[in-house]
Protein: Glycosyltransferase family 2 protein
Organism: Faecalicatena faecalis
Amino acid sequence: MDKISIIVPCYNEEQVLLLFYNETEKAVRDIENAECEFIFIDDGSRDHTPDILESLAYKDKRCKYLSFSRNFGKEAAMYAGLQHADGDYCVFMDADLQHPPALLKEMYRVLKNEGYDCCAGFREDREGEGKVRNFLSRSFYKVINKLCDLNMSDGAGDFRMMNRAMADSILEFKEYNRYMKGIFSFIGFDTKWIPFHNVERAAGDSKWNFKSLFRYALDGIFSFSTAPVTLAGTTGSILLGIAVLLGIGAAVRALLFGAPISGIMMIVLLILVLNGIQLLFLSVLGQYVSKDYMETKRRPLYIVKREEGFSKSHN
């Protein structure tokens, strides 16, 4: 009998956690010839999420959980869940029920019978989300696909079931600065997409604000593309060429026509613009240096404060 590991990162999800468990547990009952385990990752929650997970583990031996010592982020939580999963198939799901549990049965059927390595949910729309956030999200994916030479679309999220071979391949990526959507695309396993409509959270509030989304977007670009560095060099060369041409033009006008060279204000403005651009691209280079700095430290991706239901072989 196959085993399916359902990995669920959780951060302050006390309002929706029991509802998620009930709905998902009901959905997996319909999956024939497979048993399931729930692996909850408490990512440093400050509400009663750890207490609820403890009660679930006591009630249902299929439920296991890790509690981080602090908030390490969703990427670290997903990696930790995958490390502790021993199923033949692994699933990433959000606890807010925006990933429909009803699709799990079809995902398993696809992997079992159609020869795919992965079956993922594809969100067809963003109904219920703000127009500004919708626009920024679509724009980001257009930019990152051009910069990174990867196939990532706006509707392709973390909700997916994968076979053991794909799960083990993801575990080979040991970097500290992780961007899981990029890793999914980079490893190149065969994936079938199942469309579904966006739904609002069943309860609670989203933990993603514009600041965290912007930081996440930058992580994706800097993790999988060196295009910003190339752009910095190209822009510097163009600015240098423009400066040389302007200097030659001003000198020619002064010699042939006696036209006065630009005043002090123009010089000051030019210096400010050039210095601003220089500092901007120094910041881009600094992003790569800082990320390399964090990689060389070899710090752990997460620290477990408490766990329940796992064998010592996982530690």
Remarks:
- The radius of gyration is 25 Å.
- The CA atoms of residues 249 and 261 lie 10 Å apart.
- Strands lie at 2-10, 34-42, 63-68, 89-92, 118-123, 156-163, 191-196, 304-308.
